[in-house]
Amino acid sequence: MTKLETLQQELVNLYKNNESTLTKGDPSLITGFRNQALADFARLGIPTRKNEAYKYTDLEKYLTATEYEYELAPLNFEVNLDDIFHCDIPELATQIALVLNGFYYKHNRDIDLPEGVILCGLAEAGRKYPEIVKKHYGKYTNTSKDSLAALNTMFAQDGIFLYIPKSVVIEKPIQIINVGYSFKNLRITRRNLIVVEDNAQASLLFCDHTLCAKSFITNTLTEVYVGNNANLDVVRLQNENSNSSLISNTFINQKENSQHTENVVSLHGGLIRNNIYVKLDGQNASNETYGLFLSDGKQHMSTYTHVHHAKPHCHSNQLIKGILDENSTGAFNGLIYVDKHAMKTEAYQRNNNILLSDSAKMNTKPQLEIYNDDVKCSHGATIGQLDRDALFYIRSRGIGYEEARHLLMYAFANEVISNIKLDALQERIIEMIDKRLKGELARCENCNLGV
Amino acid sequence: MLKISNLHASIEGKEILKGIDLTVKPGEVHAIMGPNGSGKSTLASVLTGRDIFDVTEGKVEFQEENLLDLSPENRARMGIFLSFQYPVEIPGVSMVNFMKTAINEQRKHHNQEPISASDFLKLMRDRKEVVEIASNLTNRSVNEGFSGGEKKKNEIFQMAMLDPKLAILDETDSGLDIDALRIVANGVNKLRNQHNATIVITHYQRLLEYIVPDFVHVLYKGRIVKSSGKELALELEEKGYDWIKEQ
């Protein structure tokens, strides 16, 4: 057996041995998906490099490096919320909720939200709002094709549930802070469900953090439903320690005239893998997917996108950029899939990367699959270095080498960051990128909880 | 101010400059002319510190310092400015931010405080007038999407902002129509004074009708083969470079 097969067997056993605990008090509508997921996971296994989507992302290296515990219930941590929230986006008028090791934190503050809006843990939502959860849970993910989605579905217990009823507009962004915090190496499963009904509008910020130097493997899956004429704006800030692996799966389903923007900023982490599936499932839907990653050391940052144009007159745009330093590696694998009925599709995809060192490595594979001839599509990818002519030009005006490099990197990153709609958040992220590029963002400096 | 002695430089082992001697004093304008491939732009690159060229022999003193020991940024901070033949587009870096950073680096070098926001705006406004540059150009990214003429004007604008002691204009006339040429030349003339000096590198005599040199040097096969007053430019225009080659 290979190491990944062994791990697969361990996870299957872990599930079987704990099935009763996992499903205890668990609404049937969540449990109902587990058996199928188990079968799918057992059949598919953990993706190896033979899997085209993981050809340049060696999961074995990251997922089997050490032993991990699994917590089946929330740990009894008391967390000083002020501390946690202090370390994130100060001065930003967000409404905040904490998810600790995959579980919605029980002492979250009451959040002032418009009537009818629900923000709570997924487990709680399953009990209190089964009719909504049932309608959407498990509907946009595909466990039969994606084994990591299957793995998530097997172990899913909690995470965020957000429901925005019809025509409700939330002005202030909602900030969800996902924290890994433990005295031992930990495997975390998070499951989120976000439902934005017709004509509703919201803006969300996810911050993924590890708050100590322990090693975490996190499998997070977010299902997103964006109804007719609805508008959802999501920013993800991924900032974990170099011992940790984050596999973030996002499944987005968009209806007619809906708009969705996803901005993924990966600042730090051992392995960060973003799987982003978009289905444009109503006419005139529009999707923007932006990504920026910064890597150094032995980090690996990998992005997989799958944008499915299922209906006519939809628009999609993907722009993923990477800056890789030292021995870090990266991968991009993106697909635009246009159905034969999806006439008048407009779909664009671009991946640009800068290698700052001789040993950094990037693999990129942009792809188009188009089954009708009335479309406007383009894709492209580049891997290069900082422009030497531009560097000299800047230095010839008296700006030092480091500062000149910094200006160019910042300019490169800014094409992604400028799409973050909230000015305060954009500024804050620019600051963090600034620090990161200057090497000031330490490996685990966020640790103000004393671990 | 500038003293070049027996300067040799090569790129990838190929020698381009083969022993240049040139002295420039404050208040002077020197024109360097010569046929394509004679080494004019190489000289500009070597003086500003472009690292693709290797200096194999000779020395360059600038204000009593050994210029060749300095990084490009330190040369600029000391007051050397190059107007590029092909200005580089830098998407995402705003002109305003670029200029502010450059000025503050220069000020830091001279132990001065960073420029205040209001002084900076005033300086920008003032210098824009010198080169008759459209206001909106400075709101954009550095040279991004600028026309050829706009790029050259922007070079002179940057020169006006940084107020160099020695300005090197590398083929600033290339690609300019007559109106743009006049504006650029006017800008340069307005910035001239008895404390600064200019080296004008050009292929044609045309620019020198507007920026009148004190000395004209002919560069040919990596050497200055002839130096004289401004009348030399006219002679070259009339007889062509073949006249030099025959000598």
Explained architecture:
The complex is a heterodimer of chains A (451) and B (247). Chain A is α/β, with parallel strands linked by helices. Helix content of chain A is 24%, strand content 37%. Chain A has one domain. In chain A, strands 1, 4, 5, 7, 9, 11, 13, 15, 17 and 19 form a 10-stranded mixed sheet that branches. Chain A has a 10-stranded mixed sheet with strand order 3-2-6-8-10-12-14-16-18-20, covered by helices on one side. In chain A, helix 3 packs antiparallel against helix 8 and helix 9 packs across helix 10. The C terminus of chain A is likely disordered. Chain B contains 9 helices and 12 strands. Chain B has a 6-stranded mixed sheet with strand order 6-9-10-3-11-12, with helices on both faces. In chain B, strands 2-1-4-5 form a 4-stranded antiparallel sheet, with helices on one face. The model of chain B has no long low-confidence stretch (mean pLDDT 92). Chain B is of the alpha/beta class. Chain B has a single domain, classed as Rossmann fold. Classes of the chains: A alpha/beta (451), B alpha/beta (247). The interface between A and B is medium-sized, with 22 and 30 residues.
